[in-house]
Specification:
The chain is an alpha/beta fold. The protein has helices at about 15-25, 65-75, 90-100, 110-125, 135-140, 140-145, 160-170, 175-180, 185-200, 205-215; strands spanning about 5-10, 30-40, 40, 55-60, 80-85, 105. The protein has two domains: about 5-130, 3-Layer(aba) Sandwich (Rossmann fold); about 135-245, Winged helix-like DNA-binding domain superfamily/Winged helix DNA-binding domain (Arc Repressor Mutant, subunit A, Orthogonal Bundle). The protein has ten helices and six strands, in the order E-H-E-E-E-H-E-H-E-H-H-H-H-H-H-H. Helix 3 (about 90-100) runs antiparallel to helix 10.
Amino acid sequence: MRVDFRVSILGRNELAREGLKRILADSGVSVSCVTRSENGVFFKPEAWNDDPLHIVLCLLADDHEVITTTRELRGCLPNARIVVMANGFSLDNVTAAFGEGVDGYIISGIGCKSLMNVLQLTALGEKVFPSQMAPMMTASVWKLLASNFNFNNEFNLSEREIEILRGLTNGDCNKVIARQLGISEATVKVHVKAVLRKMHASNRTQAAIWAITRGLSPREPRLSSQSEFEYFPASHANTRPQLPAAL
């Protein structure tokens, strides 16, 4: 399934913005506007539509700019898709970016065809990670390092809410969580809403990322707030965990 979408390009480098605009236009993509950004501050033109078929493609240089720009964009465009194109990445920064509401995170060396695929996946509601993260996610050394983390229950979630949150880190849908815990789907839905409200998270993915980065194990059934942690990549809500989409 393919969908039509619009793209706005945001970045501080005029040459890069205009070059990307030409690439997208030549590929048949509708470019709504091209605008500048500087240290997280950007000019918001009227052409920016706040809907899921509007993708804001951000050409960003460093970790700080990724976070500040994403936060500002998500604040004024809560429904639009946000794709970050950065010069590089770190696990911490990618996690933080998705926690702020990014829909895609790619590296600037990506090819034209792969970029089109990323934008199409994003328009369909998928989350896209740098493919370079795949070896890190499967490396035993990363799992060993991650096992040193302890879960920090800073939002004072109840034991049942922690169980629900663990299901979210697994990427389980409400039906699966209900079956595992022996409760109704309606009850799970109530608990999920309570967890998101307490954590000030806007969706299940943000909540799962928060839990993973604070040491909540997705596999262990224990309810203790001091749980062992095994690294697990954030997945699209309501699906089983998968490796990052290939770029």
